[in-house]
Design brief:
By secondary structure, this protein is an alpha/beta fold. It contains 25 helices and twelve strands. It has helices spanning about 5-15, 20-35, 40-50, 55-65, 70-85, 90-100, 105-120, 120-135, 140-150, 155-170, 175-185, 190-205, 240-250, 270-280, 290-300, 320, 390-395, 410-420, 435-450, 465-470, 490-495, 510-520, 530-540, 545-560, 565-585; strands at about 230-235, 260-265, 280-285, 305-310, 330, 345-350, 365-370, 395-400, 425-430, 455-460, 475-480, 500. The radius of gyration is 27 Å and the shape is globular.
Amino acid sequence: MSTLPETMAAAVQAHQAGAFDQAIRLYETILATDPRHAEAWHLLGVACHQLGNNAAALQWLQGAIQLNASQSKYFYNLGVVLQAEGQSEQACTAYEQALALNPQESAARNNLANIAKDLGQFGRAEHQLRHLLTADSRWPGWLQRLGETLKMQGRVPEAIAVLRTELLLDPGNAQLHSKLLFALQYLPGISLASLAHEHKAWAARHEAPLAGLQTRFPHLDKNPDRPLRLGFLSPDLFYHPVSMFLTPLLERLNRNQFHVTCYASGGRRDALSERLARACSTWREVGDTPDDPLCHQIQADGIDILFDLAGHTDFNRLPVFVRKPAPLQISWAGYVGTTGLDAMDYLLADAYHVPESAEPFYSEQILRLPAGYIGYEPPSYAPEPAPLPLLTRGHATFGSLNNPTKFTTETVACWSEILRKVPGSVLLLKYKGCDELATAARLRAEFAQQGIDASRIDLRGNTTHIEHLQVYRELDLALDPFPYSGGITTCETVWMGVPVVTWPGETFASRHSLSHLTNAGCWETIAQDRDHYIRLAVDLANNPERLTELRASLRPRMAASPLCDAAGYAAAFEAQLRTVWRQWCQQG
């Protein structure tokens, strides 16, 4: 008969070999003899998790901790299972308990940083990442996430410095280089010329070595009037602004003229994904499919026009576009300007985002839709605009429900000047992470440096979308951040009857609200410069009669405008595609 240590050794050997069922039987044999064998409880929980039985895993791991609460690995593995089950806060607690027992448990610290970032707890994530970097300052993955965390707190110059440092350590990392480019879009004072230079540097480093892999299409049917096969490649084909813009369009495309294939690379699927899948002809989950096989799939599908819906945002597949698996490639909706790629034929935009004078700073040819470059479909559950809060509160409530990455020092200084000029007014800021301790403290400190008392800054965090829309009923006037203006946020704000004061610059990202407000017929609040921006906000806050008129008129104006004309947008989209296809056919 085997001794208990011999059985344990056999169980561990089976476990390490991946024979989980055998290992579980042996652990159970040990516990039948010694019910208080904490390590057997622990490893039994780990094996159950590896088999996908997290409910049992939690019971075994919690039992191990009850028997012996001095083992950091018990708390760490409990955190892993809780994280897998979506119990994020409980997982954080488990990881923190593991770190209390063993501060060198880098895996626990790493996972804790990841969860905190996902929860919008950016200060908490930063704290853990800096601990990790103290132990190993050259670990690229941690530097990258620190840069992202700093960016999400609105500390854009710091984030850019960190990302540039990491890029020196990992110069061939195209995704990292894209993160740097995206961060630059938020940098106050960034010019179109600087952005063009930075994006061409990405192409020189990551596109040029692959140029020889580009596909040629000598035998393609060049009938200019035949039905076209469209492909849309994106990591964001779920509840995300890209899918909100894409879905109503695909639902209205002429199925006799356009066959649509969506390539979902993000690994997430929800109710909007299902609606989008119904709107297209073919849906492909491509996940982490390597670039070459994905290109072969696109070619096998006979795609004529391939759309990039990510640009330099997270999890983009730009190396696929470098290989040019389709005759025509168009960047649209997912990014804020040029990709820098020679292989990207067109950027779908409008006259507001890319005026003719800006064309030299884009690698792509500019396709302009006659109104806006996207359409907006208001959610069916959006509540009606509320009466002007100023009339009952007695003070003006400004607000911005944008990403705090956009709340730069320059933006805070401008908003503070508005608050000083409108005595008693308050500013409501709401987004995931705004109410997190570190981010809230930073924001309040920045306003305090401008002489604004903390009591005048109302910070709110993440909620459901319908609750998010309800918050607009508390606002009298919205302040658009700069240099990265609101996109779908501006559309939602206007739909809820709240005027948006915006100050467009020269970059694509700074001109979202200019486009949306103009196309919605709501151009009264578009400023020419910083002083005009402040004057518009102050004058409106002191004119409740005008604010009341605007509040009543914005939704009807928007509903009747090109911004909400889905059928008209689809027709214009189809016409542009047919035009560029005919041009391509004529070239051959």
